[in-house]
Structures are given as C-alpha cells and as structure tokens.
Amino acid sequence: MFHFIRGLAYLPMAMVYPTKIVGRKNLPKGKAIITMNHTSNLDAIVFLLNTYEKKYFLAKKELFKSKARSWFLKKMGAIKIDRASADVNAIKEAFSVLKAGKKLVIFPEGTRNKSDDLALQEVKHGAAMIAIKTKTPIVPLWINNRPKSFRMTKILIGKPYELSEFYGQKLTDEVLGKASEIIAEKLNELKEEAKKMFNKKERKNGKAKV
Questions:
Q1: Hey, which bits of 8-102 come out as E strands?
Q2: pLDDT in tens, 51-78
Q3: If you ran DSSP here, which 8-state letter would residue 39 be given?
Q4: Cα–Cα dist 119/110, whole Å
Q5: Which of 50, 136, 144, 192 is spaced 20 to 30 Å from 186 by Cα?
C-alpha cells in the first residue's frame, strides 16, 4: 500500500515541492535511525516521497485529528506520539520498527524550528535513548531550507555513526545528555557542509540564497 500511495502522491508533490537529495548512498541497508532537523510539518513527507524504501517516523498526535490525514500519515509510516507525556506505546512501536530491521525517522529537536537561520535547537534525549537501547546506527540528515511551494528543497544525508561507547551503560540523564551532544554535533557539522555545498552552487549560478 505504501508504494502505491507514494506513486500517486509523488508527482503532484514533486511539482509543488521539488526536492534535491544528496548523499543517498549514506543510507545503510537494514535498520537505522535518521535524525532530521525539523523545519515544517512537511519535512518527513517530502523526504519519504523522494526515497523508495518505506521508513517510519514519529509524528505529533495533533496531526492525526483529520481522518483523511490520519489515514495518509499512517500509510506513509507515521507513529503517533503524545509529546506532552512519556508515550510508552509510541516508544514500543519505534523499538519494534528497528527490531524488524527497518528505518525510523526522528526529529531530535522535538518541535519545529521557526528561526530564520534554522540554528539547531536543543536536542532532546529520545533519539539517543532509542539508538543506544536498540544498538542502531544513526544517519544525520539536514534540510537546508524549509519546504516551500515551487521552490527547491535541498537535503543532505550524512554518513552513519553509532553511539557504541554508551552501549551497556545505565542511561542516566548525564549519559543521555552526552550522547545527545554527539547527535547535535553531527547535525551541526552536516548543516555547515550543506550550507557550503548548496550555497556555493547557488552563488556559482548567480542565484540568491534560499
């Protein structure tokens, strides 16, 4: 069903929200956690429609109020999560996805970034906790500009890494804080790489930055 819906939605979305993804080769086979900066409610959908393999992603429960949108999101791999509480069911479902050898998209900032320069917000502990407990490689992904109708969205996928130095440790706030700092560092490094890559090409072509 996912590939059928993706096929139907891809063309109109590609026309309205054209997307360029660099670094697809960095997506490993099998399970992985994709940590993505959060610029808009379209982030996950834009990414998923422009890659073939089905991936799962955590999405705030508020997005599921409409029956039609709820149906679409679930078919696309959305896992509903209540951000106001420790949503045990959502975490269990995330673990099941990774146990099955599939990929999970997480927004480690926890909420949309509304700043103009998309400076990374505080990274929450959830992504680190899930990655360590399931011993899953993490793939950083940076969206260089917010998805906007009829403007190219540019995405850079970084190389996978693991938080293996924390495997087997008791996951205290201190340990999760240190692990989350690594996630933040990797994303910030990728942000700088994306800025140099995409903005350099824009200057070369005589275009304004987006």
A1: 19-22, 32-36, 56-60, 78-81
A2: 999 999 999 999 999 999 999 999 999 9
A3: -
A4: 14
A5: 50
Distance of CA 161 to the CA centre of its chain: 15
Q: Where are the alpha helices (DSSP H) in 116-172?
A: 126-134
Can you give the length of the chain in residues? 210
Domain limits of the chain? 2-204
Predicted confidence band at 86 (pLDDT cuts at 50, 70, 90)?
A: confident
Please tell us whether the domain made up of 2-204 is placed in CATH 3.40.1130.10. yes
What pTM does this model have? Answer: 0.91
Q: H/E element holding 5?
A: helix 2-16
CA distance readout (Å), 158 to 5, 103, 143: 27, 15, 11
69, HSE (Cβ side, Cα atoms, 13 Å)? 12
Name 173's Cβ contacts closer than 8 Å, sequence gap at least 6: 125
E strand intervals along 61-152: 78-81, 103-106, 138-143
Are 127 and 140 within 8 A, CB to CB?
no
* CA dist 132 → 31, 126, 168 (Å): 13, 10, 8
Nearest to 188 by CA among 110, 108, 131: 108
Q: What angle do CA 9, 10, 11 make, to 5 degrees?
A: 100
- Residue indicated by tokens 């409610």: 41
C-alpha distances in Å from residue 34, one per residue of 8, 16, 64, 193: 25, 25, 22, 17
